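Appendix C: a fully annotated inverse folding record. The material below is reproduced so that readers can follow the format used throughout the book. The structure is listed first as tokens, followed by the designed sequence.
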């Protein structure tokens, strides 16, 4: 056994960089089989066994990514975080989760998120993935934008959600246009034309995106959107319930509802049931975003499935490109494959 060999020595003997040796030791996926075999041969010949802490110090990497999530109870984020973790484990990385929900106030304004950002900057973190939160506000609050840009100046960052109109930061988006068009066109195919949109916060970019595409889909069918039937409040079941109370106080309520997600749709269906209004016979309800477990709701929800199993991998691929120095902070946005309509009984 060779004594006192370091990662630097192994890199020299194998004719590769220190970072490459570190990636091989961590079973990193971003190493060619030929290079991996060469490094493994040198390691075996010298019976090299590195100190884990020294490995990170020499490569100046912690092999840790921070994931900032705005609401860990949101089923969409739960699934996405699991995908990200699985993709990270496959390449020898781990994640540290930061839930900013406790830092935000109930009125949607920013709380002390700066403490979370500073904690990440002070930690041994290689990169940050931002899921929702104030990065999804429209417009993004100036204080939050400053914090985010400070973070980007110090480490690799990928934002999942809203692309900035002026700054082409690394961003992974979903196809909101197609998801809304699927929902609206399904209702139109059933002969329904009096269609409302319910749920979502006016402050949030994804709501504005979906409402804009909702209006466009109706106009494409030569239907003038009724502003009184666009009922925005928030993303939870109680807000679907409240939307029905608002809409059914109008002289002419709609024939059908497009809900921003399954939770809002569930609340709306409960409110309709309390009014003895049958779904879908009297009012059709469709959701723009399917959540796990929705198939067990009665009636079974008709909804658009956004849960692309490759989304987490897309995020990590973009992150690794930055960490490998192959991509600048001005990345092209990635739009994952189009969503699917899941037929149920509610519409």
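Designed amino acids, in order:
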């Amino acid at each position: 056994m060779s004594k006192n060999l370091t990662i630097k020595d192994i890199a020299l003997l194998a004719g590769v960089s220190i970072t490459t040796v570190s990636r091989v030791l961590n079973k990193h996926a971003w190493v060619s089989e030929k290079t991996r075999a060469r490094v493994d041969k040198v390691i075996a010949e010298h019976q090299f066994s590195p100190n884990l802490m020294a490995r990170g110090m020499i490569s100046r990497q912690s092999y840790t990514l921070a994931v900032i999530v705005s609401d860990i109870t949101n089923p969409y984020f739960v699934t996405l975080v699991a995908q990200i973790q699985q993709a990270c484990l496959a390449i020898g990385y781990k994640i540290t989760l930061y839930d900013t929900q406790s830092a935000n106030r109930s009125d949607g304004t920013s709380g002390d998120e700066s403490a979370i950002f500073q904690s990440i900057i002070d930690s041994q973190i290689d990169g940050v993935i931002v899921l929702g939160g104030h990065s999804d506000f429209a417009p993004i609050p100036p204080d939050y934008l400053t914090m985010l840009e400070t973070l980007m100046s110090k480490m690799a960052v990928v934002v999942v959600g809203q692309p900035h109109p002026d700054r082409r930061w690394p961003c992974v988006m979903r196809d909101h246009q197609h998801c809304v068009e699927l929902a609206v066109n399904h209702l139109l195919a059933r002969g329904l034309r009096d269609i409302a949109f319910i749920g979502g916060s006016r402050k949030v970019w994804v709501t504005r995106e979906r409402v804009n595409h909702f209006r466009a889909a109706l106009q494409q069918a030569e239907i003038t959107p009724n502003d009184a039937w666009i009922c925005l409040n928030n993303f939870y079941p109680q807000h679907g319930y409240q939307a029905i109370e608002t809409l059914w106080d109008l002289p002419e309520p709609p024939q059908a509802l497009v809900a921003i997600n399954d939770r809002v749709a569930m609340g709306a269906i409960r409110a309709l049931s309390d009014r003895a209004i049958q779904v879908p016979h009297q009012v059709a309800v469709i959701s723009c975003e399917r959540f796990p477990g929705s198939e067990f709701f009665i009636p079974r929800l008709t909804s658009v499935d956004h849960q692309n199993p490759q989304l987490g991998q897309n995020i990590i691929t973009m992150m690794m490109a930055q960490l490998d120095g192959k991509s600048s902070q001005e990345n092209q946005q990635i739009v994952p494959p189009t969503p699917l309509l899941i037929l149920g009984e509610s519409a």
